[in-house]
Amino acid sequence: MNDTAFYPIGTPGQPWGDAEKARWLSRQTRLRSYADEVQAAIEPLRARFDVVEYGRLDYAPDTYPLFAIRNRAWRGDLPCVLVTGGVHGYETSGVHGALRFVERHAADYAERVNLLVAPCVSPWAYERIHRWNRDAVDPNRSFRENSPAPESAALMQLVAPLRDRVLVHVDLHETTDTDESEFRPALAARNGEAFEPGEIPDGFYVVGDSDNPQPAFQQAIVAAVARVTHIAPADRNGEIIGSPVVAPGVINYPVKKLGLCAGVTDARYVTTTEVYPDSPRASAEQCNAAQAAAVCAAIDFALAH
């Protein structure tokens, strides 16, 4: 291992203890406002949708209310669609793509599905533009029993009554340049492992469930998003972020085994979206539009099949 490239917290080869986590936390600063950018965007939606507070994060001295948005024509005989964003708080279009979907497209599905949208699962991380929560825990590896992440636990509690009724779950994410420059090195340091450099894909792709891959569903989403922004090509090894490309823009993970948000229900149709906001070929507007297009395509496919 090249120690000169090691993350500036911790000792190479040794997992972090409480002292290292405290030092990491001391380096985190608020860079944007959940109240001003997310809660303020939710407020106007109350005129057309039900907005529920499904939990509250107590990260003293701050507290963060957690909101979910539901359509008012909720019926027991309709399938449920779950949309989640901001599980990784730094992935901006996950949050604002979810809100864009509600604002511009959710009404199109009234009386056809029950919609439940949690646009910002990790507000502390949203404000600090970070992948982890305050305890240096990745919420998107924590969707499991006795979760160490309160963000994940709150969402699981919200979804639990609907777990068997969800037909579609779309979890909105980004892959960014900082994954390689900050977050993967930090992960390796936290775990006491060597950092192995990787390659950031340029473009949109989706991650299906390797235990329930649904290839036609995944490809329908990619086809719809291709009209909005470009699709990530496979690298020279035929992979995206180390996983084999099974179709253009499609890879698979064992989502439940990994504790990913995409495994929080037993939905037939599940996908994790990944846009690339750092591409010179994509704007923030395109990224938000791509996320909303992915949600629409997912619902459309499920309803047609």
From TrEMBL:
It holds the Pfam family AstE_AspA_cat. InterPro entries: AstE_AspA_cat, Peptidase_M14. Its cofactor is Zn(2+). The keyword Cell cycle does not apply. It comes from the Bacteria. Keywords: Hydrolase, Metal-binding, Zinc. Residues 30-305 form the Peptidase M14 domain. GO terms for molecular function: hydrolase activity, acting on ester bonds; metallocarboxypeptidase activity; zinc ion binding. Signal peptide: none annotated. GO terms for biological process: proteolysis. Coiled coil: none annotated. Belongs to the peptidase M14 family. This is M14 family metallocarboxypeptidase. The lineage of its organism: Bacteria, Pseudomonadati, Pseudomonadota, Gammaproteobacteria, Lysobacterales.
